[in-house]
């Protein structure tokens, strides 16, 4: 339809001629990434000089509270009659009553050294080399030997008892 003159001012026609404003153009991913720098990730929060003193103050307060709590617990233990035991705990120590039934191997060092137990069987260097040679042989046989040749070799092995 075409409207001329005063017909353009009619209530229903006026909305037809009003164009909706275009939405603002969307930014591409590259344009969004241009404004991202170290400050976006919070790496320059300490540069303004406000955050560090607040963190130091809070850290001192938390440490003081932890020390007070420890002292109160220590005094309570002493009041109950418990003795303080400040011994070093060796997390690598192995008890002598542990058995070697897990399939592990004990490794003894010089006198006075700790004993360590391997809880899984560890292959020797020679066993590893033999396994690698076997695997390489099988790969080469599969690559170059035909099916009939493989069957004949298996038959020969069974006849020879190998």
Automatic annotation (TrEMBL):
<dbReference type="InterPro" id="IPR009360">
    <property type="entry name" value="Isy1"/>
</dbReference>
<feature type="compositionally biased region" description="Acidic residues">
    <location>
        <begin position="82"/>
        <end position="101"/>
    </location>
</feature>
<dbReference type="GO" id="GO:0000350">
    <property type="term" value="P:generation of catalytic spliceosome for second transesterification step"/>
</dbReference>
<protein>
    <submittedName>
        <fullName>ISY1 factor</fullName>
    </submittedName>
</protein>
<feature type="compositionally biased region" description="Basic and acidic residues">
    <location>
        <begin position="102"/>
        <end position="113"/>
    </location>
</feature>
<dbReference type="Pfam" id="PF06246">
    <property type="entry name" value="Isy1"/>
</dbReference>
<feature type="region of interest" description="Disordered">
    <location>
        <begin position="77"/>
        <end position="122"/>
    </location>
</feature>
């Amino acid at each position: 339809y075409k409207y001329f003159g005063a017909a353009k001012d009619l209530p229903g026609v006026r909305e037809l001629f009003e164009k909706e404003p275009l939405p603002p153009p969307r930014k591409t991913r590259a344009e969004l990434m241009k404004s991202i720098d170290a400050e976006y990730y919070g790496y320059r929060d300490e540069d303004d000089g406000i955050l560090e003193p607040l963190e130091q103050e809070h850290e001192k307060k938390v440490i003081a509270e932890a020390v007070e709590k420890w002292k109160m617990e220590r005094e309570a233990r002493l009041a109950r009659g418990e003795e303080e035991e400040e011994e070093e705990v060796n997390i690598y120590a192995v008890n002598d009553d542990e058995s070697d039934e897990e399939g592990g191997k004990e490794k003894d060092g010089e006198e006075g050294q700790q004993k360590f137990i391997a809880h899984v069987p560890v292959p020797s260097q020679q066993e590893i080399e033999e396994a690698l040679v076997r695997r390489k042989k099988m790969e080469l046989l599969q690559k170059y030997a035909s099916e009939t040749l493989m069957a004949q070799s298996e038959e020969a092995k069974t006849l020879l008892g190998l």
